[in-house]
Amino acid sequence: MRGVPGPRLPAAYAAPGRRALRVTLVAAACFYAFRYGLDRPVAATYALFTVVAVGGLSRIPGTGRQRAAVVLRLLPVCWALVVVGTCLSVRTWSAVAGMLVVGFTLTFAAVGGPRPAGAAPGLQLLYILPSFPPYDPGSLGDRLIGTTTGAVLFVAAEALLFREPRPLPYRERAARAALTAEQCAAGLAAPPGTLTDPGVRAAREAGQTLRPFNVPDAERPAGPGLHDRALAHTGLATRTLLSRLAQLPAEPPDAPGPQARHAVSAVLCAVAALAGTTAACLRTGASPAARQRALAEARAHLSEVSAGPPAPTAAHTPRRAGETGPAAGFPPAVLRRHAAVLEIADAALAMGAAADLAVHGRHASVPLPAGRFWYATSRAPALWWHRMHGHAGRRSVFFQNAVRMALALTAVRLVAGVDTLPHGFWAMLATLTLTRTTLGETWSTIRLALAGTLAGALVSAGILVLVGTDTAVYAVLLPVWMLCAFTVGPVKGMGWAQGLFTVLVALVFAQLAQPTWRLAEARLLDVLVGSAIGVVFGVLAWPRGAHDEMHHAGAELLRRSAEIVVTTSAAVADGAAAAVRPGVSGHRSLQRAVLLAESAYAQLQSEPPPFTGRGPGAPAVVDWQATLIAGHHTLWGSARLLEPPCTELGPAAAASAGTLGDRVAGRMLLVSAALDPGEDTPPAPVPLTDPAPADFAAEPPGAPRRYYATAAWLDSLMADLARIAHADPAPRTGAAAADGH
Question: pLDDT tier at 617 (50, 70, 90 boundaries)?
Answer without folding.
Answer: very low
